[in-house]
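Input set for joint prediction.
Command: fold jointly, output tokens.
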Amino acid sequence: MPQKKISIRIDGELVTALEGQTILQAAQEAGKAIPTLCYLEGLSPAGACRICMVEVAGTERLLPACTTPVQEGLAVTTVSARLTQYRRMTVELLLIERNHVCSVCVSNGHCELQAMATSLGITNTRYWYDFPTLPVDMTHERFVLDHNRCILCTRCVRACAELEGANVWDVGGRGIHTRVTSDLAQPWGESPTCTSCGKCVQACPTGALAEKGAAVEEMTKRTDRLTRLAGSKRAQP
Amino acid sequence: MKRITIDPVSRIEGHAKITIDLDADGRVASSQLHITQVRGFEKFVEGRPFYEMPGITARICGICPVSHLLASAKACDQIIAVNIPPAAKLLRMLLHYAQTVQSHALSFFYLSSPDILLGMDSDPAKRNVIGVIEKHPELARLGIELRKFGLTIIEGLAQERVHPSWVVPGGVATPMAAQLRDKTLAELPTAIAGTERTIRLFKSTFESLKEEIDHFGTKPTMYAGLVDDDGNLDLYDGRLRFVDAVGDVVEAGIAADRYAACIAEATLPHSYLKAPYYRPAGPVEGVYRVGPLGRINAIDQYGTPMADAEMIEFHERFGRPAHSSFLYHYARLIELLHALERIGNLLNEPMILDTHVRATAGVNAPEGVGMIEAPRGVLIHHYKVDEHGAMTWANLIVATGHNNFAIGNGITEVAEHFVDGNHLSEGMLNRLSALVRAYDPCFSCSTHASGQIEMKVELRDVRGEVVDEIESR
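tokens >
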């Protein structure tokens, strides 16, 4: 059955969307860019990073565009001083929570967090850095997990579960102690479920997951391949 | 007792302070060099993947990041236990000589030439690179051109002038473009001719600077430098040679991984800079100097004709070994010439454009030591890793560290000769800074002052009251 067409307004402009789409999908189809970090086309949305928050007429609360479905007559604002302020604040909080040192990072110049901070005009943070002492898991033969650079977007968790079906990654702990974990919180190199496919590495927006041996600035990610793979999986009967 | 404090020492890289204690008659009782910042690299790299070390340690300094990159990458080469491809070695050497050119040009033309060309007692407001531009415009331009020459090679190879990440464990990231080789070869003769002119000009100042040469840290010490199998200076891959205070070779050539057999490290209560010494001789007799003067006294020859001819004249004028720290400048200029000659040789190597420039491997050895000659002297990076390649321990010995004891001794000597504690003059205190400057010390600097560095000197009596004061802005 074809999806029902509905009309919504994005930044005042009348847009046709399909029932079941999220605000983000409808906006992207209409050529409106809403900034995202934890969203990766092809993976299920998680609403983890809160960068894609938008204003919706009729509610005071900001809503995440990546998980909010469209409804007939919805009026969405994607750009406002208030949204920019919250997005900046969110990225600043991501930056201070871990030890993001761009200058010596494998993903310097190819990092989605760095690019987001740059595009939001963040030159410094208004909060104190937390400087947590975090481990680097180098036990895997080919890949490295550096918790210092993780923003808990869970793209690795979803890529592993939805595209590879291995379910190696999960999230453990609470609040500021939350960490991605492999299997039952054992060293990645000892994981019996990891197929070493590297999809999690490609999905990671920062240098948290990287190929072993990549020097500073050398780690580039190919998220487009994951999106294509997801598309071809969906097309299969 | 009175104390003179010079803080900060200006026109050096990094931050340092000098204190001089005077006795009741205003004579120098003791003096000390304080390095006032702690950096902590050796500690905070623990747990990091070893292959990130070149990028991390390059951030120690904005002047010689290439030196740290190379020493670090060499230590990593040992951890992955590979022989890097021949072209990679040539390219690393080329980068290193280019770095030497730009660093030596910075030290001489920008930082030290105001003292030498304008005079130690000249107007402090003009005793800077701007003053040199006014009085010797051609020379100042040459300094800028030489620095640019070195930096252009670095940028051409590594895509970035400062903090490039092009040197990696196992080689370098990308090969060299033929265009860069041809352009550099075309510019080389001008750079060499300019350096020769500068050396001639420098030699013409010896008469007027006789007092400085005779009293500028002239206490005999041991010397160290890296040499190849034939005793030529080998900035990139030599073995460590020590000569004693009369110039006799006491260690012919120690491999990098045996450095600890010869070098012991002392810590000083008044400074964050550690003080290495020649272990067999102890911390008093075992004081040695590295850098251009250390090298010219330790090597048999440079191994390139023009520099070797200058080296013969150097030792004829000032003996072998030559002890005056002022001669660091002279040796530095000769080395600049040598580096340019070497760049010519390297660019004419047929293998230099080869595209196989990187070897890859995992962790094959639990530790590695990289040793090179940074512009300021021997630089050692020593790493230990676990089975997965996480850093468990690091030791860095930087060039200025080797010279720590010698600089301290030199300060005392200069203070005793030039400082009269009953009335201070700016020129006499500048000589103390100039002594430190002669070593072109790099106090692990990545923090640079913006604008002009202020120097304020206070002479206080034993109750802490200011009895005399000089300020330069």
